[in-house]
Amino acid sequence: MTHSVFASPSSPSSFSVATTNPRCHYCRKTHLPIPSLPPFPRRPPPPSPSLSWPRRLAASAPVRCTSGLSEMDDVTGSSLFPLQRCKTVHLVRHAQGIHNVEGEKDYKAYLSPELFDAHLTPLGWDQVDSLRKHIKACGLSKKIELVITSPLLRTMQTAVGVFGGDNHSDGNNTPALMVENARKSGRPAISSLNCPPFIAVEYCREHLGVHPCDKRSSISEYRQLFPAIDFSLIENDEDVLWKPDVREANEEVAARGVKFINWLWTRKEEEIAIVSHSGFLFHTLQMFGGDCHPIIKEEIGKHFANCELRSMVLVDRSMLGSDSSCSNYPGKAPGGLDLPSDVAHEKHRTQKNMV
């Protein structure tokens, strides 16, 4: 049974998000204001697969989620939503990278070209192995339908290491998620068998600009290192989003996060893992929980540790996620009389008053 706690919305338009434990599904829900996005009454048709990622995003209608909590909701702290209007997202920050180590010693190290597209440290790979054991032990690995990863080396290493298949054998004809010793990692090849599909998305990247560690390598190189990751949503081979002299503002990262969440509703998958970065996750999640208890807001929006997993339930209050439920059943099969007693009583009283 899923429990949720809602606070009164601070604006007429809102998302809802709930933190949840993947074992017991205990969750708490709050709202994400998006006043700048215009209303769309129903779900748009899916963008053409032939469109590039930026054009798909432009073709996807922005979300307007209206809230309508009753006074009873405020009293009980619980709300019910149709299952088909919810998605479970499992947010993961990448494991420890070389930039984390050098940057903590000296902040100026973030400007070093030697940290370009930072890779995981040996400790980072140990963190990956620990999280992988956890998701298998709690059964989460069998539930995830899609893995979305930021297209930087450290996030893709984390994604395939945590959610990928077992070691890839030479006799296996399927493409590997990661080739052996990718970027001198010393790690064995990772199989794409018995795991969900992986897709790289630019919109969940770290702050863009200035720091070389946040600049990605070319997609053509990545395809050699991660053959089974889908890079089709990335339009440019080289990193044209990263600028050497302009650092993306926190507000811009948060706005990009809202666009990313909008895009999630165009996906059919209901349980999705997202491997991203500290800055992106923090500033996106700061958009949630402004009207709820401070403890809940902190639970949602605090900074992620390296390789931390935090699970959320994303709730669509509009008609964007309007697919029919696969588990609902209409009843009356075979048909028959089924007038409820309370309705029958009211009908009888109305008829009596009309006499």
From TrEMBL:
InterPro entries: His_Pase_superF_clade-1, His_PPase_superfam, PGM_Phosphatase
GO cellular component: cytoplasm
Official protein name in the record: PGAM
Any matching Pfam family: His_Phos_1
Stated role: May play a role in carbohydrates metabolism.
Family per record: Belongs to the phosphoglycerate mutase family.
Organism: Musa troglodytarum
GO MF terms held by the record: phosphatase activity
